Amino acid sequence: MPNRDKKFLAVKLGGGSKFLGDYDVFRKAVSHFANEKTSKSSAIGKVCSVCGELKDKVSARTFVYRFNFDTDDKPGFIAGGFDKGNNWKNIPVCEDCRTLLKDGKGFIDSKLNFKFYGLSYSIIPRLLTGDEKILEEIISILSDAAQTVSLKDRIKRRITSDENEILEFLADKKDILTLNFLFLQRQRSAERILLLIEDVFPSRIRAIFNAKDEVDTAFKEDFNFGKTRTFFSKSDEGKRESDLNKYFLEIVDTVFKCGRL
């Protein structure tokens, strides 16, 4: 079967009333095979690098990404003297945290992704206080961007081309959290980080929108990053793909970090 063709097979038992996942023996079998995969780069009685607690078993096999970077096929990247037996030291993760990481990655992929002039980015919030209600509010805004936008009875300002952009709404928040902007390029065999903008305060986003208002008023034209993208997309219009992403993202990074262009 060609790699591009995907098929789905559903098996029902008990007269069509139950799926395989409804049976404990099947769930245990799936869990067993999953644990076998993590045992290859594991250690007993070590501290998990995520929760910081001593666990019965940790493993460097997180299986968070579709194409895993936590492999031991390149000895030069293995901690502990290039010994594959010490590969678990690279990123020791317990089973509970592995599940949380996989669920979190799935949530980011499905809810926190936005478009940015031919690129895609994720907004990942980091709370600076212990108030979980604030975190829930921010996650609600991010995860249901379309509803957040539609509920506003004002004309929403945007600095990107995404109709669901919610940066203006996040700019209204206090500096009790920071936002991380992760630009990823998904290719056939890997996910490559193009840019990671860390620790952006809501006040910085407000400053960007205030600067946008001044420019819009001065030039009587709606300004956004699309104006910049016009000059930093392709070096030749005949090219199929954008080859100036690096330079465009350098400008974006500088703007969000309050640097000099």
From TrEMBL:
<dbReference type="InterPro" id="IPR013389">
    <property type="entry name" value="CRISPR-assoc_prot_Cas8b"/>
</dbReference>
<dbReference type="Pfam" id="PF09484">
    <property type="entry name" value="Cas_TM1802"/>
</dbReference>
<protein>
    <submittedName>
        <fullName>CRISPR-associated protein Csh1</fullName>
    </submittedName>
</protein>
<dbReference type="InterPro" id="IPR013420">
    <property type="entry name" value="CRISPR-assoc_prot_Cas8b/Csh1_C"/>
</dbReference>
